[in-house]
Amino acid sequence: MKVKMILPALTEALSPHWRPIKYSLFPPLGLATIASFFSPEDEIDLQDEHVETLNLDDRPDLVIIQVYITSAYRAYELADRYRQKGTYIVLGGLHVTALPEEAKEYADTIFLGPGEDTWPRFLADFRAGHPQKRYVSQERDLLSAPPLRRDLIKRNLYLVPNSIVVSRGCPHHCDFCYKDAFFQGGKSFYTQSVDQALVEIERLPGRYLFFLDDHLFGNAKFARDLFTGMLGMNRIWQAAGTIQAVLQPHLLELAVESGLRSLFIGFETLNTNNLRQQHKYHNLNRDYTAAIRRLQDLGVMINGSFVFGMDEDDESVFETTVEWAISQGIETATFHILTPYPGTPLYERMLKEGRILTQNWDRYDTRHVVFQPAKMSPETLEAGYWQAYKDFYRWSAIWQGAATKTSLNYRLRHLVYAGSWKKLEPFWDWVIRGHQLAKMMPILESVLQGFDRVSTPWKSLHTQEFEKSAQFRT
């Protein structure tokens, strides 16, 4: 059977002017995971439109398209094109799960939720000649899932081909997050076994890897066992976590000892009423500054996430947030306009209040205002969002943030990392178009690893215990 898997591109990723590096960071692991359920005799072509031009002249037996909200129209266009050829079309992903009645008009079969339990059933039905119109995930288990098909990934087209996911979902329930809608009807957070995760890590060449899990620290026992198993692997890695996880005793130290160098953290807002309204309770009564200092003392860089447009936000939120982030020495910041995704409690609440301004999914990219803010105009919110990026990444702000660091090495790392991310976009565009991203990995590793790390008595003690354990095992 000839199978075509497509990750459609967002419009910005195909810009003729410059191509943002963020769209060339990671390969499509979701499709590579689905591919693992096929027979070795099946011929699979996995294409990511963010990094390559799609071949649309082929005639596969089955086309599988992963759909996000801002690629929905492109996904539907591709589906229609292949249906006209008589190809069987399957659509799945976040947007399909959120709006199945919309998506089903463009597919022969749709998938709702994660696919570990539904894909084996679909393939058996498809080969028998009677596939169903809809498959809904209910059984959530990664323990029996086969390794994803990394052989289908074109590693040279990505800056971080060593991306990995060892869990699904998140234990928290924020109103603006897609997660609860996607995992409706079953477990919303679950992990691989530690042994599975370690085997997958061993498959990845080189030193550097990036965990794409929504919350790698979400199951503290799993995280602790995983980090312990990674001791001695000589890895350096990045991931996402929460303030709550950072403040847990010993867990962060163990993560750093196993190779953690940079952590994405959803601060989202400095306003406690906003946190309550969005049900982001795990950030309430947490000392942001203490968590930041804890990370910085251990030599971990921070990518802070902030959301503008919550109901308590007025025109002052942009300057207040940016100044705070700079003063805290956060290396990189990701700003978002609050976006009520279909299927989320936030969307349902705003729809009921008559605050949704458009259902043009192309604009649901966290860069455009699609709802009526409570305390400012849509134009003010959008302008403030763009100004926040300009203010945070101006050279004087980068220098100011670097100056908060306690050593010359950490100051230099801050300057190089923050400056390279936003101030060198023309350079990244040249690298992407020249297919030279793979050559940048040694530079990234050097920035993450090539500076002194702070040692702690606990870390030294833990290393001794690990070495004793390793001697005992051998």
TrEMBL record:
Domain Radical SAM core: 156-374
Pfam name, any one: B12-binding
Membrane-spanning residues: none
One function term, GO molecular function aspect: 4 iron, 4 sulfur cluster binding
InterPro entries: BchE-like, Cobalamin-bd, DUF4070, Elp3/MiaA/NifB-like_rSAM, Methyltransferase_Class_B, rSAM, rSAM_horseshoe, rSAM_sf
Recorded GO CC terms: cytosol
Cofactor(s) for this UniProt protein: [4Fe-4S] cluster
SUPFAM superfamilies on file: Radical SAM enzymes
PROSITE patterns attached to this UniProt entry: B12_BINDING, RADICAL_SAM
Sequence ranges assigned to domain B12-binding in this UniProt record: 1-133
Protein name (Swiss-Prot/TrEMBL): B12-binding domain-containing radical SAM protein
Protein source organism: Roseofilum reptotaenium AO1-A
